[in-house]
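Exercise 7.
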Amino acid sequence: MIIIAGHWFTEGNRDAALQAFSNMLQRARKHDGCLDISISADPLDADRINVFELWRDQETLDAWRKVAKGPRGIKYRKAQVKLYCTDKAEKPF
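Solution. The predicted structure, written as tokens, is:
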């Protein structure tokens, strides 16, 4: 499994930035290998956007990246997003 997680900060209107990702998120959730994806507003910081993606494997993530076509013109700063690889998943509680 591939996990992409982190956050970034907008320069300007966070709500407009989130709305710009709406179509891409809808398409991603239907894409083969996408187990989950979310780009969401942080409840504590008005400029922060949280990112979470869960993909079956690197191949399906690579295939998605070829067709993703994310929004253009989104200005951000201080991105802290990482890709993690794991072959294990278990219940947290």
